[in-house]
């Protein structure tokens, strides 16, 4: 069998042994390509370990063989000399040094002819060398008289020489022995052949193992890079998935909610000033604070600012501060980790993360608990916060629009609102006028709501009497546009024919200080008593299907405003 075939056979045996060893291991689950690559990596690893073990064993055998060779060479009873082509001594054993009576260092690299006594025999030695080199693997004999330092001065010896096979790459050396006619040659030849074969085997195995190890290292490096890239991609996909899911849930909630109206309607001077302020601040990233009574349309103004800003392609996230229970305020705004508190079974993204690169609208900001106002201040100043239950800081880029129907400066005096937060929010204030200051806009709003509820209810109201419109314009509208919308919807429901019939008694409502002041006060007392009765009936529940707001036909924030207005306490 040729050397190449033998190497291929050895490699195949090694491969099978490695696969048997890997078969006993448990492979991780995963994609087929990943499992295949892991399997190949483990087979290569085991094969490499086997090869390394074999190489180590071979190296040990080589060292053992060398040691034996050195011992046999050095302590043989026959003198051994190694010459180069010109007869210079390259190596000598201990017996050879004793024969000549000189130390090894005095003999190495010295011409051997220096130690031949007879000048004629010096020429014979040189001819002997030529014969040896011409007849490889053939023993040549030459008798010589050698000089010995010390006692008798010279001794007679027989030089038996043989040149190694030139195919071994060592034809520049001659292995010789000097003795009294005795050969030890067979042992020397066997040791030399074993040494040469072992050197060649080690070189071949080292080359194969180096190549295999390099290939395996490259595959491992590529695998590590691929895994790192996959982990980064997976983290990005997971983050995007969480954001999309959270945005989808939020947008569904937004769509499900009933908006008061879909656009800003009005041509009054008071409203025109609001439009001008919106156009000024919308393109900027400045924080905006909307002031206005409940029902004046602060949410619609916030939407108008967002749609005219550079963030219009991202959602505007609305947070109704009156609708969030105090114990859930922090997790709703800033998110929470799984297990952050009892009942937190899932990781939740907060409203600020949803609004990243977009806008967040904090409606009724005056309802925010004092303990969270500091955390909000940090988000405004630094754009960072920590999720509830997480030590990791989250950074966001969010434009903030806040709104309040309260006098925040009074809230500051009463210790219910942070002064530093107020100044951060009040960068660009916009005052939204109440409906009673926009009388010219009431006909436009009435026509809009009539068209809206005609379509919703299936009516065909086409006309509104002058007296009805005048009554609507004279009413002071404490609930503002939201109250007007409710009045029109109720009127369309009860109207017969094509003319709007409003049965609400607006004639009893006058401006404060006017002729009907007593009637207004009486009606206010009646409203206070009615609200108190409904609250007691519902167990002071404001929101929900069985809440007082539903029974009274009011928005929960409107009802809360009227409770504060009338000073109603539980």
Give the strand order, joined by hyphens, for the main sheet. Answer: 2-1-5-4-3
First CA to last CA: what distance? 105 Å
Separate helix tally? 19
Mean pLDDT figure:
80
CATH class of the largest domain: Alpha Beta
Number of DSSP-assigned strands: 12
Classify the beta-strand content into a percent band: 5-15%
Q: Would you mind describing this structure in some detail?
A:
With 570 residues, this protein is of the alpha/beta class. It has four domains: 107 residues, 2-Layer Sandwich (Beta-Lactamase), CATH 3.30.450.20; 177 residues, P-loop containing nucleotide triphosphate hydrolases (Rossmann fold); 76 residues, Helicase, Ruva Protein, domain 3; 53 residues. Helix content is 53%, strand content 11%. The chain is built from 19 helices and twelve strands. Strands 2-1-5-4-3 form a five-stranded antiparallel sheet. Strands 7-8-11-6-12 form a five-stranded parallel sheet. A hairpin with a 6-residue loop joins strand 3 and strand 4. Helix 1 crosses helix 2, helix 11 packs across helix 13 and helix 14 packs across helix 16. The longest helix has 72 residues. It is rod-shaped. About 4% of the residues have low confidence.
Notable features of this structure?
single chain; 570 residues; alpha/beta; Beta-Lactamase; Rossmann fold; 19 helices; 12 strands
Q: How do the helices and strands line up, and which of them pair or pack?
A:
Elements: H1 3-23, H2 32-75, E1 79-84, E2 89-92, H3 94-100, H4 104-107, H5 119-134, E3 140-147, E4 154-162, E5 173-179, H6 185-256, H7 269-281, E6 288-291, H8 298-307, E7 316-320, H9 329-334, H10 351-354, E8 359-363, H11 370-382, E9 384-386, E10 393-395, E11 399-404, H12 408-413, H13 419-425, E12 428-431, H14 442-457, H15 466-474, H16 480-494, H17 517-537, H18 548-552, H19 556-566
């Amino acid at each position: 069998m040729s050397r190449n075939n033998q190497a291929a056979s050895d490699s195949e045996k090694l491969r099978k042994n490695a696969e048997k060893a890997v078969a006993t291991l448990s492979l991780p689950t995963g994609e087929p390509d990943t499992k295949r690559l892991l399997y190949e990596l483990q087979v290569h690893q085991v094969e490499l370990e086997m090869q390394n073990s074999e190489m180590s064993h071979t190296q040990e055998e080589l060292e053992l063989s060398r040691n034996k060779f050195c011992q046999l060479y050095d302590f043989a009873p026959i003198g051994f000399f190694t010459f180069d082509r010109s007869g210079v001594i390259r190596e000598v054993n201990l017996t050879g040094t004793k024969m000549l009576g000189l130390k090894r260092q005095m003999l190495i690299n010295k011409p051997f002819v220096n130690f031949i006594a007879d000048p004629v025999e010096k020429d014979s030695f040189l001819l002997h060398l030529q014969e040896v080199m011409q007849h490889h693997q053939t023993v040549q004999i030459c008798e010589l008289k050698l000089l010995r330092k010390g006692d008798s001065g010279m001794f007679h010896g027989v030089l038996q020489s043989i040149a190694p096979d030139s195919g071994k790459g060592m034809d520049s050396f001659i292995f010789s022995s000097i003795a009294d006619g005795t050969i030890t040659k067979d042992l020397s030849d066997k040791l030399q052949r074993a040494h040469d074969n072992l050197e060649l085997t080690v070189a071949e195995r080292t080359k194969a193992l180096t190549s295999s190890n390099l290939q395996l290292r490259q595959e491992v490096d590529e695998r590590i890079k691929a895994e790192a890239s996959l982990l980064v991609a997976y983290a990005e996909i997971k983050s995007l998935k969480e954001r999309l899911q959270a945005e989808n849930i939020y947008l569904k909630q937004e769509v499900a909610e009933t908006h008061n109206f879909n656009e800003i309607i009005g041509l009054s001077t008071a409203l025109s000033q609001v439009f001008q302020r919106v156009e000024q601040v919308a393109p900027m990233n400045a924080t905006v604070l909307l002031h206005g009574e409940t029902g004046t349309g602060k949410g619609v103004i916030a939407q108008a600012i967002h749609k005219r800003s550079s963030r219009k392609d991202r959602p505007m996230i609305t947070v109704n501060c009156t609708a969030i229970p105090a114990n859930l305020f922090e997790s709703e705004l800033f998110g929470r980790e799984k297990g952050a508190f009892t009942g937190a079974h899932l990781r939740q993204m907060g409203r600020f993360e949803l609004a990243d690169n977009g806008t967040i609208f904090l409606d009724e900001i005056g309802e925010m608990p004092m303990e969270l106002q500091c955390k909000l201040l940090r988000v405004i100043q630094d754009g960072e916060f920590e999720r509830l239950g997480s030590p990791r800081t989250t950074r966001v880029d969010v434009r903030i629009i806040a709104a309040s129907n309260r006098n925040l400066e009074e809230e500051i005096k009463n210790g219910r609102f942070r002064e530093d937060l107020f100044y951060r929010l009040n960068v660009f204030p916009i005052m939204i006028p109440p409906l009673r200051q926009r009388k010219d806009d009431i006909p436009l709003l009435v026509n809009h709501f009539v068209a809206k509820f005609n379509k919703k209810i299936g009516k065909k109201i086409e006309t509104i009497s002058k007296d009805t419109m005048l009554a609507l314009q004279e009413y002071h509208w404490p609930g503002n546009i939201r109250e007007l919308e409710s009045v029109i919807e109720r009127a369309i429901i009860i109207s017969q024919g094509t003319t709007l019939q409003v049965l609400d008694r607006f004639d009893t409502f006058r401006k404060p200080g006017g002729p009907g002041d007593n009637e207004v006060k009486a009606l206010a007392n009646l409203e206070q008593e009615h609200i108190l009765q409904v609250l007691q009936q519902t167990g002071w529940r404001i929101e929900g299907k069985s809440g007082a707001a539903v029974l009274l036909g009011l928005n929960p924030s409107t009802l809360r405003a009227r409770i504060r207005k009338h000073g109603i306490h539980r």
